[in-house]
Amino acid sequence: MVTDNETYVSDLKAAIEHTVGIDELNGKSILVTGASGTIGSFIVDELIHYNKSGKGWITIFAAGRNVDKLRERFGEDISFVRYDMLSKDFKEFPEHVDYIIHAAGNAYPSAFIDRWKETVEGNILGTANILEYGKRANIHRFLYVSSGEVYSVEQSIVDNIAEIHGKTFAETSDDCSEFASHYYNEILSIVEQQGPRSCYPVSKLATEEMSLESDLDCVVVRPCHTFGPGITGSDDRAHVQFVKRAISGNPIVLNSPGLQERSYNYAADASSGILTVLLTAKKGDVVDICAPGNVVTIKGLAELIGKAAGVPVTAKEADERDLKLQSPINKQILNPDKLVSLGWTKAFDLETAVDHFVKIMQK
């Protein structure tokens, strides 16, 4: 298990130390959806390690489609919930939970192209369902994990989303299907006009708006490009392809010059940042999850991974499929000021983070 890796355990300790207000979770309960993903899995591991440290006890619920895989991944120290984003069957869910971190949903390029309707449906209708559960469970706070890609959405679309009026939870009792349907139908129309790749940032932005309009205490985080050992088999993001080739001893191959600039974050810093927002931000806050100084080109990241693994970086001409998968955003640099104002500091510079990432994956 990854939690037997010394480097990973040290990263968990660092994340705990950099999570502002983590002791406020002592005696509380928290449910994490998307618990098998890069961000969700590290958050769950950080919370488990907090319990093992003897500092306190947090009741943890990891939610996902395959409970057996979650149990194999995390062991028996927490509770598991079978979770289908589009189902309203919450019989396996706890009657009450204090916090929900909603990190479920498609987050890799091939899904945006091949299953764009599923991506929109999962983000909007799936989130509506978990918001509905949150109201029934009388939660203290709901945190929605959005994406830094929302900044790429054209202003006209942003204005359009802001004008979508669904019924409030108060008007629809505990059923928010009608509330969400306004967003879902509008976003499907926008994506059909903009192209499949737009399904992710546009539906993420609409889901932010829908969540913040609910009558729950809600905060939103927008993570930058996040890397870490919680990689699923279907994940085909660039950094995942880089590290898979590198740890197998093969050259890293770029499908473009790789000159696009990005804010990158290690999963440990993303986890401590997200939990800091959960515990210290004001209701309605929207916070970028990124670390000061962690800006690099895609080629630069590939070279850092190659250096850590001892493999070269090469390039080839992109084919038609590669071009469709590439993000059209040339510069995606997020602003860490709001997160830093909450008292958060990063634990890792980019080179150290990449080195840890590669070392953990190699073992």
Describe this structure in words.
With 363 residues, the chain is an alpha/beta fold. It has a single domain, classed as Rossmann fold, CATH 3.40.50. The protein is 46% helix and 15% strand. Strands 3-2-1-4-5-6-10 form a 7-stranded parallel sheet, sandwiched between helices. Strands 7, 9, 11 and 13 form a 4-stranded mixed sheet that branches. A two-stranded parallel sheet has the order 8-12. Helix 3 links the parallel strand 2 and strand 3 (79-82). The radius of gyration is 20 Å and the shape is globular. The model has no long low-confidence stretch (mean pLDDT 90).
What's the alpha carbon Rg, rounded to whole Å? Answer: 20 Å
> How many strands?
13
SSE run: HEHEHEEHHEHHHHEEHEEHEEHEHEHH
- Helices, by number, come to 15
CATH architecture: 3-Layer(aba) Sandwich
Q: Under CATH, the topology is which? A: Rossmann fold
What is the secondary structure topology, with strand pairs?
Elements (H helix, E strand, L loop, with lengths): L5 H12 L11 E5 L4 H15 L6 E6 L2 H8 L4 E4 L16 E4 L6 H6 L1 H21 L4 E5 L9 H8 L6 H4 L4 H18 L4 H15 L4 E6 L1 E3 L10 H10 L4 E3 L6 E6 H14 L5 E4 L5 E3 H12 L3 E3 L4 H6 L5 E2 L4 H5 L8 H13 L1
Parallel strand pairs: 1-2, 1-4, 2-3, 4-5, 5-6, 6-10, 7-9, 8-12, 9-13
Antiparallel strand pairs: 9-11
Helix pairs in contact: 1-2, 1-11, 2-11, 5-8, 5-9, 6-9, 8-9, 10-12, 12-15
